[in-house]
Structures are given as C-alpha cells and as structure tokens.
Amino acid sequence: MTGHHQVWAYAFEETQWWNDVILKKNSCSSIIGSGFEEKKNSSEPLSACLASPCGMCNGIMNGEPVIFIADSNSSTIRVVTLNDGHVTNLVGGDADSTNLAAFGDLDGTGHHAKLQYPIGVAFHYPSSYLYITDAFNNKLKRVDMKTLLCSNYFVTDNDKKKTRGETNSSKFYEPHGIAILDHFLYVADKNNSHIKRIDLDHGTFIRHRFDLSETLNEERSFRSKKAYLAIFLDDALKLRDGNAG
C-alpha cells in the first residue's frame, strides 16, 4: 500500500507468519512496514520503514527465497527474506534512513548505485538478474545477483517499422510495470504508450503500440503455455499464466 508505506497480505487460509503471528483465514493484515515514511532496515518486519513501495516480485538471493520491493520515494530496491521477514537494502538510496533525496543515475553496488523513483521489478530465475523500471531516469536497469552490480540494460530495436533516424538503443519514457514470462520481458512504457517485449536471450525488443485509454486483454501463446496480458491505464503490467490454475 503506497500511501500507507506498508506491504499487506491477504490470508486465504489461517497462516502462521513471522514471529509466530497468526494470520486468520480471509483476513488482510500489514506484514511489512511501520507506516512511517523512511528507509529504515530491521530484522523485525513491522519495525522497518518503507517509502511508497510499488512493484514487488519473488526471487532468490544468497540461495534463499526473498521478496524484492521497488521502494519508490526512497529510490531504492529493498529485500525481504521470506524465512524471517528481515528487511535490508539492495541498491540505491543513502546510509541515512531519513534521507529520501539520495536519488540519481549511477551504476554501482549498494548505496553507490543510484536510481530515481523505481516502480517495477521482475526477477529472471535462469540468469539471476533482477530487472528494474527506473521511471524518472527513463531507463531499464538490472542487478546481477551474483555480483550485486546494478547497471543500465540496453537492448537493440528489432522493429523494422521504427521511425527514420531512430537509434538502435531503446528509448523509454517513464517505464512502469514489468513482467517476465519464459525468456521474454514485458515493459509498460507509460508515456510512449508502448508495451515493449524484450527477448532476454538475444537482447532485442519489439514494441506494441496500444491505445491505453481502454483496458486491453490480449491472449498470446508461448510454447506450450498460454498467457494473458492485462494492461491498465496508470497501472502495472500484469501477466497471468493460463496453466497456473
């Protein structure tokens, strides 16, 4: 919940959660964040502080299952270990937890890397890369989870109908939602009114231009799977796997 600076969870069944907290069936409760807008890390998930968290995804770090959070107002990517709820910083921001103005555009590790209002995150399990839509820098970035280096990710324009004079480097304009299915990365390039589909095996992309004034549902086939793109104005790009039940 961006406005509350927290992450909430809905329990479909009664669940024993971190610190022996019981989440009752069909209940919705805050599980991460104190509600104060800061960038405070903590081993106690409800004592940690977030700053307008937006995109989230599952992933692996140091061999353990984690949740990655695009913490937009602190311009950081936060990590929550699923085993105990420990909240730490991955990249971006500043060592001062109250400093929410430590933004920029720099490659690097930890606090040396700089982002500006990241919104979406997606983890690619085969390569162990975390992809980030760095909205106000108009860039797509990625973190190599083996080295923890955050850097710009450039892809080649594979669209034969591209505008004359356009370079082969993809251009984003406040990219927002992001999702991965198989070896394809989908990016909702908000202000360009594009959905960019990136082939992660070859580093190329094609763009799909849509009128985002209306909701679009498009069915596509991927090998033996079927997936559905659900695109909403001012919302994230979501993929639903037709075989996931």
SS summary, helix count: 0
Cross-sheet strand order for the largest sheet:
13-17-16-15-14
Task: Report the mean per-residue pLDDT as an integer.
Answer: 83
The assigned structural class equals: mainly beta
Largest sheet: 5 strands, mixed
Binned strand content:
over 45%
Q: From N to C, what is the helix and strand string? A: EEEEEEEEEEEEEEEEEEEE
Question: What's the β-strand tally?
Answer: 20
**Shape field:** globular
Overall description:
This protein has 245 residues and is an all-beta fold. It is built from no helices and 20 strands. The protein has strands at 7-11, 15-16, 22-23, 27-32, 53-61, 64-71, 76-81, 87-92, 118-124, 129-134, 139-144, 149-152, 156-157, 175-181, 184-189, 194-199, 204-209, 216-222, 225-231, 238-241. It is globular and about 50 Å long. The strands form 6 sheets. The chain has a 5-stranded mixed sheet with strand order 13-17-16-15-14, with no helix packed on it.
Give a quick precis of the structure.
By secondary structure, this protein is an all-beta fold. It contains no helices and 20 strands.
Question: What are its keywords?
Answer:
5-stranded mixed sheet, 245 residues, disordered C terminus, 4-stranded antiparallel sheet, globular, mainly beta
